[in-house]
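Progress report, Aim 2. The chain analyzed during this reporting quarter is listed below.
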Amino acid sequence: MSVRGKVIIVTGAASGIGRAIAEGFHTDGATVVGADVALLDGATDFTLRECDVSDAAAVADLIRSVAGEHGRLDVLFNNAGLGFRTAIPDHAPDQFEKLIRVNLLGPYYGMKAAIPLMQAQGGGHVVNTLSRAAETGGKGFGAYGASKAGLYALTRTAARECLGTGVLVNGLIPGPTRSGMNPEAPQDPADVYPTAKWLAAFTADDMTGRVFWNRQEYRIFDEANAAFSREIE
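Predicted structure tokens for the chain:
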């Protein structure tokens, strides 16, 4: 489970889960570059760069510059995200679209830039932060759930497209974690790090196209579909 010496990018790293896992990687000897749209939360031990993940050119520049500076990119954690709880008819103008640009297009831009680079170097790992909101259909979570369901589909597709190249693409479900989006959640952001580290230590022979929660594979949609059908019948 060593990440020592790995070059890792973590988006959404100024606070919350992103900051906790970036700090964990740094402490465990990885070279970490965090990215965030606004650097508001004080000094960090790891490098933190300003990047709006909804800007395709900015994401591509970040990935190229990190790989160029350090000679490779081993892990991309697409963690940056927005969240709100609002019924679909009550969405403010562009509220849905803004969330999709960050939560879904941001990881897409990251994968689009990182995967060819990782394939050229002989391997790498993309980890996308997912959520059970993708499967539950919770009231008020239309935008957030749609973004995570879309990201799950992208994760599976990218994993299939990368078979045989040494590049893995997987998803991580943190579980209910305290953050700006969920300040009352029971879990501390640092509790996500063991699973993040475990995934970052994967090698080319490990699993791909899967979703993990607490270092266990989570079969998204399997149980939720049946539960949802019972609820709305």
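The helical segments are 16-27, 56-70, 95-121, 133-136, 142-161, 193-200, 222-232. The two ends are 46 Å apart (CA to CA). These observations will guide the mutagenesis work planned for the next reporting period.
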